[in-house]
Design a protein that fits this description.
The chain is α/β, with parallel strands linked by helices. The chain contains ten helices and 16 strands. Strands 3-4-7-8-9-10-15-16 form an eight-stranded parallel β-barrel, surrounded by eight helices. The chain is globular. Bound molecules: ligand RRO.
């Protein structure tokens, strides 16, 4: 019997696939739909301290190997977001992760406290959005001191287990991972989008995205994501949700072997619909059957042996 159940701290997932932040995660209805399509856990779009329009269209463009986005952290008001989150937590058949952000360290604490009232299974601090500048002019996740300060503030503000989402856009992701673990992170998710990148429209001679630059996701980033997860696994003891470019069960196997305990599937949902979660679980199960792996424990971190 092949067992693909996953564990993140004390939370059990029927399978290791997770809907990451930013994809179909604004309403309770869409989160429930993804859960019903076979995701092992679902994450909200990042919830902010107040309503935010985000950047002007176009905010997403398809490029070779994936997508370039600069949505700009659009979100409804905090009250609306919490209302949707509360319904999702009550009605979802799978664990719910509440992603959130703040523009300052204090704001991270305030939003964490508010979001936690809905009692999600995890809160996820998004310290890695590439498309906005925080009060220090760059994402908190690019500096180990700010990453640790946000983590500490959130841990002081909430009793809900904390995931910290890291950016690949740093010289050494191990330093950031060690800092957030030391500061109290219960799990790490990685990676946020790669870049920033840029696409220029040849007829107008202008950048395609209204914000000019955007973060890259999709199959082209998989090797970067696998390397980041591999390095994080070498550095910390907390569980890792590995994401970035996973489209198939075999991509998921790579991520598990690199050290992830669960795998995020984002851009592939945009391309293939929420059915992709069942497809990935099925392919993962078949790979394990054919190769004699009985449970995810046999796969997780295997590349380090
Ligand atoms: O909204 C965005 O532009 C965005 C976010 Br919050 C993020 O975390 N990662 C990304 O690629 N885009």
């Amino acid at each position: 019997m092949t067992d693909i159940r996953a564990t993140l701290r004390s939370v059990s997932l029927e399978n290791p696939t997770v809907l990451p932040a930013g994809i179909l995660g604004i309403t309770a209805a869409s989160l429930k739909r993804v859960a019903a399509s076979g995701a092992g856990a679902v994450t909200t779009k990042s919830i902010g301290p107040q309503r935010r329009e985000g950047h002007k269209n176009p905010v997403v463009v398809e490029v070779n190997g994936g997508l370039l986005n600069s949505v700009g952290l659009s979100c409804p008001s905090l009250e609306e977001s919490i209302e949707e989150l509360t319904s999702a937590v009550k009605e979802s058949r799978v664990p719910v992760i509440a992603s959130f952000y703040g523009r300052s360290i204090d704001e991270f604490g305030l939003v964490a406290a508010q979001v936690s009232k809905a009692k999600p299974d995890f809160i996820e601090a998004n310290i890695s959005c590439p498309n906005i500048e925080d009060e220090y002019g760059k994402p908190f996740g690019t500096d180990h001191r700010f990453a640790a300060a946000v983590t500490e503030k959130v841990k002081d503000s909430s009793k809900i287990p904390l995931i910290v989402k890291l950016t690949p856009n740093v010289p050494d992701i191990k330093v950031i991972a060690a800092a957030v673990e030391e500061a109290g992170a219960d799990c790490i998710s990685a990676i946020n989008t790669l870049g920033p990148g840029m696409l220029i429209d040849l007829s107008s001679g202008k950048p395609v995205l209204s914000n000019r630059f955007g973060g890259m996701s999709g199959p082209a980033v998989l090797p970067v994501a696998v390397r980041c997860v591999y390095e994080i696994y070498d550095t910390v003891d907390v569980p890792i949700i590995g994401m970035g470019g996973i489209q198939s069960g075999l991509d998921a196997v790579q991520m598990l072997m690199a050290g992830a305990s669960a795998v995020g599937i984002g851009t592939a949902v945009w391309k293939r619909g929420p059915e992709v979660f069942n497809v990935v679980s099925g392919e993962l199960t078949r790979f394990m059957q054919v190769n004699g792996y009985r449970s995810l424990k046999d796969l997780i971190g295997r590349a380090h042996q």
